[in-house]
Amino acid sequence: MNGWNTDELSAIEEADELRVAPRRRDGTLRAPTTIWVVRDGDDLYVRSFRGAGSHWYRGTRARHEGHIQAGGVDRDVTFVDEADPGVNARLDDAYRGKYHRYGPQYVDPMVTPTARGATLRLVPR
After folding, report:
1. Helix %, strand %, coil % of the chain (to 5)
2. InterPro entries per the record (predicted)?
3. Is the entire prediction scored with pTM above 0.70?
4. What is the architecture, at CATH level 2, of domain 6-124?
């Protein structure tokens, strides 16, 4: 199967949190980290509010592969860097819209240049 199916997209979009486990160079999975996830069209994205220094984000650099769980969906993924300013602007809006109830102290760090620089598209494998 190429891409996410409609049920997977909806389930992950509706989930508040996603568990991400990057794959190490030896093929084993790192311990999962709970993060936020947003949807843009038929794509799913995650960001590190701490930027490229975050441990889970650094883990994605080893093989650009890993595993995610959210909303009952359990999938292996490829992590693809996202630097398109248009996409990142839409993702800023998606983070603000989906997570606004947590307040600016949590949402504002997700829409900074630091976080934008650590944006990944999740591609199912």
Report:
1. 40, 30, 25
2. UCP028498
3. yes
4. Roll (2.30)
Whole-angstrom distance, CA of residue 113 vs CA of residue 26: 32
* Domain residue limits, the chain: 6-124
* Residues whose CB is less than 8 angstroms from the CB of residue 15 and which lie 6 or more positions away in sequence, other chains included: 37, 70, 71
Please give the chain's pLDDT, 125 residues, in tens.
469 999 999 999 999 999 999 999 999 999 999 999 999 999 999 999 999 999 999 999 999 999 999 999 999 999 999 989 999 999 999 999 999 999 999 999 999 999 999 999 999 99
Quote the tokens at residue 47: 């960001």
C-alpha dihedral (24, 26, 28, 29), degrees to nearest 10: 0
Separation between Cα atoms, residue 23 and residue 12, nearest integer Å: 20
